[in-house]
Design brief:
Layout (H helix, E strand, L loop, with lengths): L10 E3 L2 E2 L4 H10 L6 E8 L2 E6 L2 E6 H6 E2 L1
Antiparallel strand pairs: 1-3, 2-6, 3-4, 4-5
């Protein structure tokens, strides 16, 4: 399951990142998005979602949310 399929308001644990792009991998790691970290979908919007990660909120587009496995 990926982050774009998550329910709003429910906490999930990041299982991994499904991308071959090393820059994207490094970017997500710098946000604190890596295996074992909790993540919560605050709200879903057309074309993406707002997530809470490491006491911060981020707006992610659908492609980025689909790369985060939960």
């Amino acid at each position: 399951m990926n982050l774009s399929e998550a329910q709003e308001g429910k906490e999930y644990i990041v299982k991994g990142i499904a991308t071959e792009d090393e820059e994207l991998d490094a970017f997500l790691f710098s946000l604190g998005c890596y295996s074992g970290e909790p993540v919560t979908v605050i709200s879903k919007r057309k074309g993406g979602c707002v997530v809470s990660l490491k006491d911060a909120r981020y707006n992610m587009d659908t492609d980025l949310a689909q790369a985060i496995l939960i």
